[in-house]
Amino acid sequence: MKILIPTKLDKAAAATLCAAGYDVVQDDAAPIEELVAANPDAAGLIVRSEKVTAEIIDALPGLKCVIRAGAGYDNIDFVYARTKDIDVMNTPGANSNAVAEEVIAMILAAYRYVVPADNTTRAGEWNKKKYMGKELTHKTVGILGLGNIGRLLVKRLQGFECKVLGYDHFLSKQRALNIGAIPTEIEEIFTESDIISLHVPGGPATRNLINAELIGKMKDGAMLINCSRYGVVDEDAIRAAKAAGKNITYCTDVHPKDTAAMQPSADVADILLPHLGANTREANKNAAMQAARQMIAYFTSGDTSCVINAERPADLHPAQLQLASMLGQLCYRVGECKPIRKIECTFYNNLRAFRKWFTPWILQGAVPGAEKGLMPAAAETSFREHGIVYKAREPKDDKLYDDALTIDIHMEVDGQQIVSSVRGMVVDGTPVVSRIMEFDHLYAALGGNTLILRYTDRPGVVAAIGQALSQAGINIDNIVAPNDHKSGDSLALIKTNMPVSDEQVHDIAKAISAKLAFSISM
Questions:
Q1: How far apart are CA 245 and CA 101, in angstroms?
Q2: What is the spatial order of strands in the sheet that 44-47 belongs to?
Q3: Cα dihedral angle (228, 230, 233, 237), rounded to 10 degrees?
Q4: Distance separating alpha carbons of residues 442 and 462, to the nearest angstrom
Q5: CA-CA distance, 73 to 88, in Å (whole number)?
Q6: How far apart are CA 197 and CA 142, in angstroms?
């Protein structure tokens, strides 16, 4: 069986595969198109940043598996690969230490003016007084995101006797302390830290997470390092702060595209690197060995635990998976977005046979910023990395709920545990929520824009809500407003023709003295 490696990958992968009896062709000099054309009988393909397009896939009729030696896989047309029954994998975690060490390198380079001092000394200058540096020892370092990279960074900083502040929305305070970081809110990190390092996922949930307000809280002379994803930092806010005279250092290794071009951060970054985070011999070898082991396990024992484009079972309707994601998102919001400790799910009737396939969808719905498109096993690993216990429960009695799904999210507020709970099902192909907390028999469609309000039951509240929405030019498409006699509360689920802004939600909540108020679009 032939394995094609058209990239500059550590030779350990080829050696491991050859030792296992595979025919390996590795060539990083020839374009991937030429190598594929010369080896149309390849059954496996291992790449790094090379683009695996539909044309490449079509040129390999015997291809069964593509592995990206690294975490990201945007360079692979994995959707088209699925149509050809080709499995696509990645090697998550192989480069974590490399990125952690890069952060240390950036800190020391910036503190000791390594780059400008080298350039000017080579030019015959002697700027010893100009380049008076700082020491990393005993500094306060704030880390946003205590995943694999963040945790390794904490360990690397211990030798410098730093005070480490850590923020991770999903990590319990005790677990953060066990790692070696003092659990701290984001605002406090920006107020107290000498150095702030970002290790959070990209995407809409973290877009411009580091905004003008947070940047304004930074200490004079503080440093901000972004080795996570481009877009997490509002670089216009950095630009404006520096123009206004704020003394801050900004180091970044992430860009809109990994390509030769004038990068948008060039005028604002004090240290600018070409995405070198994973670019070490050791990380390359780790990824190579992991890719080789996964390829062997795939062909010898059918191991698909790292496949990112697996096809769902034919009997599982896509709307059921969409339901899981929507219920997870809704349940998280009902719990007012507090830190998650445990998620328990109950699958009724026919859904019980497919419950493992729901794990990635519940993850991406309930956990903001979580990676999408994971296989069930990888999603379970992601839950553990976020410090969340995930459990699929057996129903006590599934006769009443048809093919329903219940999600309970256990959250922590000031050391106290609270539970947010929802149940839903698919009706005529549409995901609906049937229960939110103690409010049952809702049967409200989950798609579109929904305003959710909990308040003390009394006459005139629904009319007041309708009037407020009308004044804002927002039309009500549908409304469900049951009350609970035991608590004396009502819950209004109001479908609107457009999103209700946070400001509008705040004003309505204040007017009716709401106990819970939020707007959600799905």
A1: 31
A2: 23-26, 2-5, 44-47, 65-68, 87-90
A3: 160
A4: 16
A5: 9
A6: 6
- For residue 312, give the amino acid letter: R
DSSP string, 65-112: EEEESSS--TTB-HHHHHHTT-EEEE-TTTTHHHHHHHHHHHHHHHHT
* Residue appearing with tokens 């697996």: 310
Could you tell me the pTM of the whole model?
A: 0.65
In DSSP notation, 420-489 reads EEEEEEEETTEEEEEEETTB----EE-SSEEEEEEEE--TTHHHHHHHHHHHTT--EEEEE--EETTTTE
Cα-based angle 382, 383, 384 (whole degrees, multiple of 5): 90
One digit per residue, pLDDT tens: the chain, 522 residues?
A: 999 999 989 999 999 999 999 999 999 999 999 999 999 999 999 998 899 999 999 999 999 999 999 877 778 998 899 889 999 998 877 888 999 999 999 999 999 999 999 999 999 999 999 999 999 999 999 999 888 889 999 999 999 999 999 998 766 677 788 889 999 999 999 999 999 999 987 766 688 999 999 999 999 999 999 999 899 999 999 999 999 999 999 999 999 987 889 999 999 999 999 999 988 999 999 999 999 999 999 999 988 878 878 766 767 788 898 999 999 999 999 998 888 999 999 999 888 888 888 998 999 899 887 777 677 877 888 888 788 899 998 787 655 668 899 999 999 877 788 999 999 999 888 899 999 999 999 999 998 999 999 999 999 999 999 999 999 999 999 999 999 989 999 999 999 999 999 999 999 999 999 999 999 998
Task: Check: CB of residue 200 under 8 Å from CB of residue 232.
Answer: yes
Q: Measured on CA atoms in the order 426, 427, 430, 433, is the torsion positive or negative?
A: negative
Tokens of 337: 């977005």
